[in-house]
């Protein structure tokens, strides 16, 4: 009898399941999707993004006036031990912070020096490569000039024309020197 009472037809089950079962355990992807959908529902509302907390560990300044000074009286009470431990903990935390700061400064100094040396090395290498390129370029331009045929020089063409006409006035102007370096 209970089987007929609780049994539903397939149509009723699908209608009841249409809104979807409520899940309490979401996968990270589903959780992110749900959060994004919630944000996108109210697109006009500004979103507050909190700032990151400072990474620096700040401690309280040491007190100028210490109230719980242990005197020279005999027999300290049971509460004095806890006061001592708290003071000791603060002092060790202060020393640890001082060591961390000095370590960070030392590492920063070493890093800057290393970067400076690397930059100088890179500039030196760049200058060396630049001079190599310039020498190669100069050599290539010199080779182009030396590979030219002496007949193709414009000055030689003028001289050959002057020789044909029998005019040697150009050689006389130079004082007999041959500035082109060509041989006749």
From TrEMBL:
<feature type="compositionally biased region" description="Basic residues">
    <location>
        <begin position="130"/>
        <end position="139"/>
    </location>
</feature>
<feature type="region of interest" description="Disordered">
    <location>
        <begin position="1"/>
        <end position="184"/>
    </location>
</feature>
<dbReference type="GO" id="GO:0004860">
    <property type="term" value="F:protein kinase inhibitor activity"/>
</dbReference>
<feature type="compositionally biased region" description="Basic and acidic residues">
    <location>
        <begin position="89"/>
        <end position="129"/>
    </location>
</feature>
<dbReference type="GO" id="GO:0003725">
    <property type="term" value="F:double-stranded RNA binding"/>
</dbReference>
<dbReference type="GO" id="GO:0019901">
    <property type="term" value="F:protein kinase binding"/>
</dbReference>
<feature type="compositionally biased region" description="Basic and acidic residues">
    <location>
        <begin position="31"/>
        <end position="47"/>
    </location>
</feature>
<dbReference type="GO" id="GO:0005730">
    <property type="term" value="C:nucleolus"/>
</dbReference>
<dbReference type="InterPro" id="IPR009548">
    <property type="entry name" value="Prkrip1"/>
</dbReference>
<protein>
    <recommendedName>
        <fullName>DUF1168-domain-containing protein</fullName>
    </recommendedName>
</protein>
<dbReference type="Pfam" id="PF06658">
    <property type="entry name" value="DUF1168"/>
</dbReference>
